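Task: sequence design from structure.
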């Protein structure tokens, strides 16, 4: 058993309070949601044994009269202090203990309102003292005046408690609202114990003396905890626990309670919240603080809690033993100093590129991208004759009827892109193998298929409007209204009457047969005008959507490598290669949409279906998402701030969409991996981040477990799309925040954006802002051909192995900050030129012309 030395002075109180604090720190360090209830159960099985053995020991504090008489006891033990606790009081305290344990088992967050219990207990203690006129003042004047002012003055004590509570919850009280429940329960517990020491009883309030009633209290606690475990198993199934860790945690809890009770016996139970607060603030990881202010705040709260402990055990004496309690401050100062040291070392590593930034992969890729972008602008056709020639050259076929009218519309509206619409033709061209009549027939069959969940939309040339119908739904997610809004004012006769299918779901739908089959009609299950519909919602789809990846295809793509030297870090240099499922089969387990999508109704065959986004191996025809036109995703300049005023970090908040969690594989989903990385949730031995440094002109790799959390402001604000057990596990694992304002991202210089169940509706808003978008996606979108990575945004690979180095370079180096600013301004300027509503209209206009030709009944199959 850990004891504060010297052992012959064990009754001097410094021993028990120091030991209680140490075991509380150990408890916080070992605690986990999975082991909470089991360890608490073990704790209350051990406590009666500990107290029984203590009463038999000659070192018992209660038996050491000389020692006890030398201590300043703020509460006189009166006639009622020895009265046995009533059954109702025991059950009330036992229930409160169970409530606190259940909260800790269900929520990752600590009891953030714990510091407020100190002033509340001071108020309770004052009430108990006033019931006996003979009771002495609870704040003897012999104590230092500063300590009395800080810890015994109710208004000041409340202010300190509020500051500590705000610090523990990260200044997000709304997200920690449920923590009020265990806080109230803890107040009941400590006040009941304090009431046992009061001279007179206050009716209608529990009164339990822990040391005297532990043998009666412990069985009640055990019964309630067993009931909680049975209920937990019936709802969530049995959870696998680490038995050694659970045993150590249970023992540490029991010892913490034991020494805390012995301390409170001769001081006050006000010391319990102080010890608990110290334990919480002394145990966060050295790299978990999100900002310097948060780190200093935790340190300040820790010192204040320690000061309160010293204040409550103060006694006038020549002994110098009490100040040794301040040595516990090392537990708080250590992580803070380590954080500063490692963070500065990481910054100095990044600064090795100072004066030679041109050798960093970010700079190399940006220069290459600028050449590509200038070529894109320079090669657009200036007249229709050139546009016609370019169309024939690219696609080896004549353009659809009406393309000249489209060209005139694009030129009149100053479209910067005239020729680069390969995405449309590449999606439509496989369907040209069918005749126009076959296309119309397969569209009708797909729409009428049970469970297809498709909208059949009709464009009227005479009226210039689009109407959509569904077999069972009434709300079309603004599909028709978006087409009507975008094509309003267009000379309708230039687009013929046509029908088209639109996917209702976020997830893509179409898997084309292998493009290497010489005759698509030879496919055993797929023939022209036929398709297979398979509902794979909530199931892994990786094998299904990559089954047409062939060795020939892989070989043809093998040569598409970047010339950029990045020391093995996957900086994205070619979007098509980075997102290619055939090239990166491991992507099937790293993206929630592929690992286990929420909804996925796969249509295999040649069926023209419009979707807002499509995986590289799939054949959906992409069109501008109506979400980009909704009010929620509109950019407002007055809600943004200048670059210089933005926080120098990367920001993202959102929900855990992207995949459906039914087992532990959710840890591999793309959103969960990103948040876990940014929140430093992996154990140090599991973290292997790679950074780059320049040594003698050569770029070298540096591997470290360090990730500077102050450069990331990332959190989930909603967790769903999971079974009960997995939702619970994610709540326990992540630091979840309350809802935040939709424009909060603009307070940061770097804004992260990634796929959900489908495309992200915030992307265009980020491009329009004065912040730099960091974009991770596997989905093709209509705008891909006009947005150039490293010029308009910063691409991030699905593995995110390069993200720590990327964020470090863009935030901690002068050249990186300047590059990030340039990308933000370039993206903002290009958004104003190429992602206007009229650019949506130009794209849809051309898309409808291709679809009209596709279903022309006079067209023969190619």
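Answer:
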């Amino acid at each position: 058993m850990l004891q504060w030395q010297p052992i012959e002075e064990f009754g001097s109180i410094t021993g028990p309070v120091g030991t209680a604090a140490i075991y509380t720190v150990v408890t916080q360090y070992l605690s986990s949601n999975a082991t909470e209830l089991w360890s608490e159960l073990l704790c209350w099985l051990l406590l009666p044994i500990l107290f029984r053995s203590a009463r038999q020991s000659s070192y018992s504090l209660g038996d050491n009269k000389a020692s006890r008489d030398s201590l300043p006891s703020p509460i006189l033990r009166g006639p009622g202090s020895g009265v046995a606790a009533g059954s109702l009081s025991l059950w009330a305290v036992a229930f409160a203990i169970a409530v606190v344990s259940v909260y800790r088992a269900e929520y990752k967050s600590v009891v953030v309102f714990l510091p407020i219990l100190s002033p509340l207990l001071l108020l309770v203690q004052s009430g108990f003292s006033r019931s006996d006129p003979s009771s002495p003042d609870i704040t003897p004047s012999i104590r230092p005046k500063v300590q009395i002012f800080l810890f015994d003055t109710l208004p000041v004590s409340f202010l300190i408690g509020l500051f500590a509570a705000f610090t523990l919850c990260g200044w997000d009280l709304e997200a920690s609202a449920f923590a009020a429940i265990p806080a109230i329960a803890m107040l009941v517990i400590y006040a009941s114990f304090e009431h046992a020491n009061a001279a007179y009883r206050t009716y209608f309030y529990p009164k339990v003396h822990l040391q005297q009633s532990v043998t009666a209290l412990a069985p009640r606690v055990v019964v309630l905890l067993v009931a909680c475990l049975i209920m937990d198993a019936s709802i969530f199934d049995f959870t696998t626990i680490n038995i050694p860790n659970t045993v150590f945690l249970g023992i540490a809890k029991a010892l913490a309670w034991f020494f805390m009770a012995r301390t409170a016996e001769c001081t006050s139970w006000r010391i319990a919240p102080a010890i608990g607060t110290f334990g919480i603030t002394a145990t966060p990881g050295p790299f978990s603080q999100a900002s310097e202010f948060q780190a200093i705040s935790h340190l300040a709260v820790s010192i204040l809690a320690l000061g309160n402990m010293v204040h409550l055990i103060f006694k006038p004496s020549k002994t110098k033993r009490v100040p040794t309690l301040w040595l516990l401050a090392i537990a708080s100062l250590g992580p803070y100093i380590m954080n500063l040291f490692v963070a500065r070392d990481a910054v100095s590593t990044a600064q090795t590129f100072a004066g030679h930034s041109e050798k960093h992969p970010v700079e190399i890729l940006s220069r290459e991208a600028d050449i590509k972008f200038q070529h894109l602008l320079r090669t657009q056709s200036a007249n229709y004759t050139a546009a016609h020639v370019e169309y024939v050259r690219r696609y080896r076929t004549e353009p659809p009827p009406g393309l000249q009218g489209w060209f005139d519309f694009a030129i009149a509206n100053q479209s910067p892109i005239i020729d680069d619409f390969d995405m449309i033709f590449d999606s439509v061209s496989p369907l040209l193998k069918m005749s126009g009549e076959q296309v119309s027939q397969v569209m009708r069959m797909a729409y009428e298929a049970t469970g297809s969940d498709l909208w059949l939309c009709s464009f009227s040339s005479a009226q210039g409007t689009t109407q959509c119908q569904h077999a069972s739904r009434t709300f079309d997610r603004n599909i028709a209204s978006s087409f009507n809004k975008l094509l309003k004012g267009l000379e309708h006769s230039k687009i013929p009457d046509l029908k088209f299918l639109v996917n209702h779901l976020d997830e893509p739908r179409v898997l084309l047969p292998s493009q290497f089959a010489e005759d698509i009609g030879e496919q055993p299950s797929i023939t022209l005008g036929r398709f297979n519909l398979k509902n794979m919602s909530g199931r892994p789809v990786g094998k299904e959507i990559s089954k047409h990846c062939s060795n020939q295809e892989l070989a043809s793509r093998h040569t598409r490598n970047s010339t950029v030297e990045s020391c093995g870090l996957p900086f994205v240099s070619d979007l098509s290669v980075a997102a290619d499922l055939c090239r990166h089969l491991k992507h099937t387990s790293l993206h929630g949409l592929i690992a286990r999508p929420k909804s996925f109704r796969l249509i295999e065959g040649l069926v023209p279906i419009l979707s807002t986004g499509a995986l590289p191996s799939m054949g959906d025809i992409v069109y501008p998402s109506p979400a980009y036109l909704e009010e929620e995703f509109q950019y407002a300049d007055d809600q943004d701030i200048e670059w210089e005023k933005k926080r120098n970090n990367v920001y993202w908040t959102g929900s855990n969409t992207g995949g459906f969690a039914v087992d532990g594989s959710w840890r591999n989903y793309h959103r969960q991996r990103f948040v876990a990385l940014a929140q430093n949730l992996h154990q140090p031995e599991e973290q292997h981040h790679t950074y780059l440094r320049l040594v003698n002109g050569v770029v070298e790799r540096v591997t470290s477990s360090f990730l500077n959390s102050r450069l990331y402001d990332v959190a989930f604000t909603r967790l769903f799309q999971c079974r009960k057990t997995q939702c619970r596990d994610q709540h326990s694992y992540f630091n979840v925040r309350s809802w935040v304002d939709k424009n909060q991202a603009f307070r940061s210089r770097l804004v992260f954006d990634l796929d959900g169940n489908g495309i992200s509706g915030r992307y265009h808003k980020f491009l329009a802002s004065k912040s730099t978008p960091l974009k991770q996606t596997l989905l093709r979108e209509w705008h891909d051909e006009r947005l150039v990575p490293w010029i308009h945004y910063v691409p991030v690979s699905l593995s995110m192995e390069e993200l720590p180095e990327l964020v470090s370079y863009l935030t901690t180096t002068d050249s990186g900050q300047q590059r990030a600013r340039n990308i933000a301004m370039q993206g903002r300027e290009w958004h104003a030129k190429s992602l206007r509503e009229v650019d949506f209209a130009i794209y849809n206009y051309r898309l409808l012309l291709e679809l009209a030709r596709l279903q022309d009944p006079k067209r023969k199959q190619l």
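The mean pLDDT is 87.
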